[in-house]
Design a protein that fits this description.
five-stranded antiparallel sheet, 3 helices, 156 residues, Alpha-Beta Plaits, 5 strands, alpha+beta, globular
């Protein structure tokens, strides 16, 4: 029982789901090799299976020539983030090398990640991401850029 005039500190409500994470990955030596039909297909295929295979669900994504931005959410039984990123980068690099006949590394070892706290954070990041091809002169409008999409709907 609390004393008169004594208040309890407010506590955050528990997460209904794991937070959404905003990722950016850059190619090795900033090679301009991502924005094409073949690499788009490789990454989309790997990410589409990620939820079932290792508990990570990829939402909106956009490939630029030398980097990729995407949003993902881990399920309760997901691989740790670092392991998952290593897994899909390794798998995509092997598929890319096999199709391209190249031996050069595909990805830089490190990556950027940011936890998003709200739908407003998500919307703000996505507005920045989808404007990238326009800022770089690769598309007249964001929706004209062909190397983007959504695999799963990541709801807040």
């Amino acid at each position: 029982m609390t004393e008169p005039g004594h208040r309890h500190l407010a506590h955050l409500a528990p997460f209904a789901a794991e937070p959404v994470v905003f990722f950016t990955m850059v190619t090795a030596r900033r090679q301009a090799v991502l924005a094409n039909k073949e690499t788009h297909g490789i990454l989309r295929g790997i990410w589409a299976e990620a939820g079932e295979r290792n508990g990570w669900w990829v939402g909106d994504y956009l490939l630029m020539p030398d980097h990729v931005h995407f949003f993902a959410r881990a399920g309760r039984e997901a691989l740790p983030m670092k392991k998952w990123v290593q897994m899909w980068k390794s798998l995509s690099a092997r598929q890319w090398k096999r199709r391209q006949g190249r031996e050069a590394p595909l990805w830089q070892p490190d990556y950027f990640d940011r936890y998003l706290r709200s739908v407003d954070d998500y919307s703000e990041k996505w507005a920045y991401v989808e404007a990238n091809p326009v800022r770089k002169g690769l598309a007249a409008k964001p929706e004209n850029w062909p190397y983007r999409g959504r695999i799963h709907d990541l709801r807040f």
